[in-house]
Amino acid sequence: MKLKNFNTQIFAGLSDQEVSFAPGLNILLGPNEAGKSSIINAIFATLFSDPKIKRNTTKDKEFNQKFLPYPDGDYIHGSLIIEDNAKSYRIEKKWSRNNPSVLLEKPNGNLIDSPEKIDNILNEILLYGESTYDNIVFAKQSEVKAAVKKIAEESELKSTVTDFLRKAVMEMDGIVTDEIKEKIEAEKDKLLSKWDLDKHQPENPDRDVNHPYIKARGKIYDAYIEKESIKARIRKAENSEKELHKINGEIESLEAELKAVVKKLTELSAIEADINKRSEIEPDLKRKQEKLSELNKIKKEWPELLKKNKEHKKKLKEYKQALEKLKEEKAAYDKFKLKEELEEKLSKVKELNQKIEKISSEKEKYAEVNEEIAEELVKLENKISNIDAQLLAGKLKAKINKASSALKIVKGINAEEEIEAGSEIEADGYIRVHNNDIDLEISSAEIDFEQLQEEHQSFREKYNKMINELEKLEISNSKEAREKLKTKNDLLRDSKEAQKEKAKILADKTHKELKEEHENIEVDSSSREIEVIRAEIEQLKDNKISDLKIEIKTKENKIEEWQEEYNSLEELKDKIKTLKTNSNNLQKELRKLAELPEEFNSNKEFREKIRALRESKEDKTEAKNNKNYELIEIQDTMPDESLEELEEIYENKKRKFNGLEGRASRLLKVEEAFSQTLKEMDEKSFEPLINSFNSYLNILTAGNYQTSKINESFDIEIIKEDANNKLPVNINLLSFGTYDSVALALRFALYENLFQDKPGFIILDDCLVNLDPERTEKAIDLIKSFKDKYQIIFSTCNPDTADRLGGNIIEL
């Protein structure tokens, strides 16, 4: 199969591009970024890539990013004409998310748009799958190492190469292995179905005798189930005998325990009535004795509380009198403190009045300064400055070379002055020179000097007048006027703040009223410190008086509580007497009853023991009956065979099982020997590939390297002829040039063995760049010889390489 023509409307950076290929050697020649790789990628995509671009697969996302035109492209196009057995086929694809399409035109002109039918036709033409073409036919030189790794790892590609080579060797040797394989597999299935021979157990350990497979069981599995079934029956018989012995022992133990329970229950039942009566009397006696103790305590405390409360009330009265004296002393201190505060306020008001008077006096100095005057000065300065700038723009320069008499000159708006002949003159906008013989005026043509002079004089006179009027305030310009105005405003603000502070101090009073209030307060200068007075008040009020009130109230509440319950101390004494009589009667009644046995700590414990014994009697009687029922059930379910008979049956089943496992082991050894024979044949299957690889490697390395071995895992070894040292094909061990030579030789060898019966095409990028001159010549000769049988598409950016190779040169 060969390529004839490719065209694309748009693909990656390509636009409306068409190339035609000839049989033999074709050279894609162009600088970097000319589109060589894009054409190769487009041809590959046209052959293998699904036109429907999905959004959720990594492969399609990468395809979209690499080849969809950025930023506005929404489709990719490719059309390829191939030739197979002198017949032409045209494949056209449009890749798109929304409107993809694929079309195949057959040699007779018929068109097919079914993707499945198109794939079937292409599979017949191409022979091999996408992975084989990607890693052998289209592989870049720099990716050959990765391609070899893919051959070893990808099942499709590895299978393609190894099956092809093995088939060739088998056919040459005349060996047929299918029948042998089928017989071994059939016998294995009969014996080993559902059985793991290495582990001597079912494939699924859970599918044992308790949960066996129903269908597709092997002989070993069946023998295992039979053996384990007998083994289970033996275990059941052994367990039944053990259980019989165990139950008989349990029945004997229950009978002994039941006898002991009945004896103890009879003994305790004899005194049960007295103990129950005692349980009623003893709590009542205990309550009466506790109440009697409580009443005796109240009888003692009642008179004492009355006495203490009387003493506390007397002490409370003394504390209150002392508190009143302290409050009077605090009031006197408060007057003293108020007088001090009023003195401070009067002093502050006096200070503020002085400040206000001073500010008022200072403020009078700036009465004539206001915002309007300051603004007017700024305007006049700006106007004068503007005129000066205009005059400055009309700069004039002159020189009096000769004069008959003394000269007078006026420069700009300046006053008249005398000059001598030969003097140079500079003026802003206007010059007047005159004497007895001449009177010359010169002015700038760009300004109206007379008008500017008149305005300047007017503004200057008005400005000077205002400055003269403000001279006493030391104001000579608008800046100083602004500063004086700011000072005036600051004084006004300070005056308002002082007035505000004074009003705050006086509040709603006048200065006179505040002074009279101060004078009317009379104080005792011998007052103690307020902290001492307050501390003594707090001590009395919050501690002593409060604590004493609480204590008095507590005692009064207690006495009221007793009076509410017992009315009086006398009635309390009568109640105590009645309780004593009742307690004595209960004690006499207890002495008539049976005593609680020493083994019990309480009547409750005795009752619980009686109840537990009765329950135990019932439980043990029921347990004994249940064990008798169990004994009967076990005797009914025991197997008909004796334990000795079952053990003999088990040994027979075990011998059968072991015999079948031995037979299976021997069968696996036969299979292993057969596989080893196939393996030895597989090793021969790589001989054609090794011979081709060795031939091309010998040419490309000028006889320096030859092939040592290629195995089914694609581990490659080469030998350097002069050193007999084995070196693996590894980029870290070989030079770039040697590596490229080995890679190119391997590609040609793989390609030749795969396509020897149906020559096709191979894509080569510039694989000569790392070769020295001698190896380059060898490689060129090899490529030229390869083109006689196969179509080669060689990609390069080097015109010299293209010329040396010759063939159909396609310039991009």
TrEMBL record:
Lipid metabolism as UniProt keyword: no
Keyword annotations from UniProtKB, A to Z: Coiled coil
Residue ranges constituting the YhaN AAA domain according to the UniProt record: 1-59
Domain of life: Bacteria
UniProt KW ATP-binding keyword: no
Coiled coil stretches, renumbered: 237-271, 306-390, 435-663
Record-given protein name: AAA family ATPase
Species: Halanaerobium polyolivorans
Classification of source organism: Bacteria, Bacillati, Bacillota, Clostridia, Halanaerobiales
